[in-house]
Specification:
The protein is of the alpha/beta class. The protein has helices at about 20-45, 55-60, 65-85, 95-105, 110-125, 170, 175-185, 190-200, 215-230, 240-250, 260-265, 270-275, 285-290, 295-305, 330-340, 355-375, and strands at about 130-135, 140-145, 155-160, 230-235, 255-260, 280, 310, 315, 320-325, 340-345, 350, 385-390, 400-405.
Length: about 400
C-alpha cells in the first residue's frame, strides 16, 4: 500500500491575491509531500495492512499496529486533511445550493455562520484545523488539533481551513485574522455543496462509527461480560467459520425457526435452508407453504416454541446488554423465553460502548438502512414496533452468540 501526492487541479498562482504562489508551492510540494512520504514509510513496516483509501485508515485507527499507530494517525491525517483542503479552494464561487439552505437554517444567515467560523478559527490554540461538518444530519463547526481528522470520529467534513502557520505565514506573518478573512474569498462553494449532497447520501452509513468493526480488546471485553450474564459467546474470523459452527450447534433432526435476517443470508444459512441439503425440521418452510389459515395459525404458535431459534441482533454493549427491535415482534418471544436454544450470529460492528449507544445505533443507523432496504423491495418502509432489551439469561436455556470479525447485516 503506497500513497502518492495528489496534484493540484489549478495553478499555484490561481488563488492570488488571497494566497500567494510561493505559499502554495511550499505548502503543497514540501509540506503535503512530507506527510505523504512519512505515511508511506510508516506503512512499509506492516505490508499486511490493506485499506481501500487513506480515509478508511482514519476510520479504523484501532486496527493499526501500535508500533506505527501514532505515526500513521499524524501523517495520514496530514495527507487526508490537505487533500481535502485543496479541493475546496477556488475564487469567485458564491454560496449556493442545498448547503446554503442548510447554513441559513442552522445559523440564521451566512453572516452568523461566518462569525462563528471566524471565532472558532481565531480561538484555536496552536496548529490545527476548523471544519464545517455534518454530524447525525446536523451542521456543526468544530476544531481539531494538529492533524486530527473528524473522519476518525465518524463525522463528515464539508469545509475546512488550515490553521497551521505554514498555510499563511509567508504572506500574513502573525496576522491570522487577515488570513481567515481572506479565506472566505477562495471557498469553492460548488465543491462544498457537492460534499453536502454526498454527505447526506452517506451519513447513515457511518453514524458515529456504527459501521466500524470493534477492536480485539472490545470484543474480548464484551465476550467476558456476556459470560457473566449466562450467554455463551465466541469470536470467529469469517462468515464461513460462523456457518460451520452454526451447523455444528444444531443437532440432526431438530426443529428450527429463523427470524428475518440479512446476516443469515450473508453467511449462507438462508441458502442452505432453501437447498434442503440438511436434515433439520424447518418450521418456516412449513409455515410459508401452508395455505390453510387455521393450520398457519397453529404453525405460528409452533414456531414460537421451536427447539432452536436462529437470528441476529441490532446492537450489543461492551457490558453485555443486547438490543433487538422488530416490526411484528414474531421473534421476540422465542428470544426472551420460549425457545430452549437461541443462536445469534453477530458482526462485531454491532458492539457499542454504552447503554445509550444501543438505542442510538438502532435509531440513527440500523433503522434508516432497514427502512431504505424495505422500500427498495417494494414495501412502504419499516417500523420499530417492539423492542427487547436482553439483560441476562436466568432460565435453563442455552443462548449462544457467535461474533464474526466481518461486517454482517446492519
Amino acid at each position: 500500500m503506497k500513497f502518492e501526492l495528489p496534484q493540484l487541479k489549478y495553478a499555484y498562482d490561481s488563488l492570488e491575491p488571497y494566497i500567494d504562489e510561493q505559499t502554495m508551492k511550499f505548502h503543497h510540494d514540501k509540506h503535503h509531500q512530507a506527510y505523504t512520504d512519512k505515511l508511506n514509510t510508516a506503512l512499509e513496516k506492516h505490508p499486511e495492512l490493506n485499506f481501500a483509501s487513506a480515509e478508511e485508515i482514519l476510520m479504523n485507527l484501532n486496527k493499526i499496529p501500535e508500533d506505527i499507530r501514532i505515526a500513521v494517525k499524524n501523517n495520514c491525517g496530514g495527507y487526508v486533511n490537505h487533500k481535502f483542503f485543496w479541493e475546496i479552494l477556488k475564487k469567485d464561487i458564491l454560496l449556493n445550493g442545498n448547503v446554503q439552505k442548510a447554513i441559513e437554517k442552522t445559523f440564521g444567515n451566512f453572516e452568523n455562520f461566518k462569525e462563528n467560523f471566524t471565532n472558532a478559527s481565531l480561538n484555536l490554540f496552536g496548529s490545527g484545523w476548523v471544519w464545517l461538518i455534518l454530524n447525525n444530519g446536523n451542521l456543526e463547526i468544530i476544531s481539531t488539533s494538529n492533524q486530527d481528522s473528524p473522519i476518525s470520529e465518524g463525522k463528515i467534513p464539508l469545509l475546512v481551513i488550515d490553521l497551521w502557520e505554514h498555510a499563511y505565514y509567508l504572506k500574513y506573518q502573525n496576522r491570522r485574522a487577515d488570513y481567515i478573512n481572506a479565506f472566505f474569498s477562495i471557498i469553492n462553494w460548488d465543491k462544498v455543496n457537492e460534499n453536502f449532497i454526498n454527505a447526506n447520501k452517506m451519513k447513515i452509513n457511518n453514524v458515529k462509527g456504527f459501521s466500524d468493526l470493534a477492536s480485539e480488546e472490545d470484543v474480548k471485553e464484551t465476550i467476558s461480560a456476556l459470560k457473566l450474564r449466562n450467554i455463551n459467546a465466541e469470536l470467529v474470523n469469517t462468515k464461513e467459520d460462523a456457518l460451520k459452527i452454526l451447523k455444528e450447534l444444531i443437532p440432526s433432526g431438530s426443529e428450527i425457526m429463523t427470524g428475518g435476517s440479512t446476516t443469515l443470508q450473508e453467511i449462507g444459512f438462508t441458502d442452505l435452508l432453501k437447498s434442503k441439503n440438511h436434515d433439520w425440521i424447518n418450521i418456516k418452510d412449513e409455515l410459508l407453504s401452508e395455505k390453510n389459515p387455521e393450520k398457519q395459525a397453529e404453525l405460528r404458535k409452533k414456531s414460537v416454541t421451536s427447539k432452536y431459534f436462529i437470528g441476529s441482533i441490532h446492537a450489543i454493549s461492551k457490558e453485555g446488554e443486547i438490543l433487538i427491535a422488530s416490526a411484528s415482534g414474531s421473534q421476540i418471544p422465542s428470544y426472551a423465553f420460549s425457545s430452549d436454544n437461541v443462536i445469534w450470529i453477530v458482526g462485531t460492528q454491532k458492539i457499542v460502548s454504552t447503554h445509550e449507544d444501543l438505542f442510538k445505533r438502532l435509531n440513527e443507523y440500523v433503522f434508516p438502512l432497514e427502512n431504505e432496504r424495505m422500500k427498495k423491495e417494494g414495501y412502504p418502509g419499516s417500523t420499530i414496533a417492539k423492542i427487547l432489551l436482553f439483560e441476562r439469561e436466568i432460565m435453563p436455556r442455552k443462548i449462544n452468540l457467535i461474533f464474526v470479525n466481518e461486517k454482517l447485516g446492519f
